[in-house]
Amino acid sequence: PEDPAIPLLGIYPEDVPTGNSAQSVDQPDAHVTLSEGASLELRCSYSYSAAPYLFWYVQYPGQSLQFLLKYITGDAVVKGTKGFEAEFRKSNSSFNLKKSPAHWSDSAKYFCALNGLGSLNPTFSKGSQML
Question: Which residues form the Ig-like domain (predicted)?
Answer without folding.
Answer: 17-125
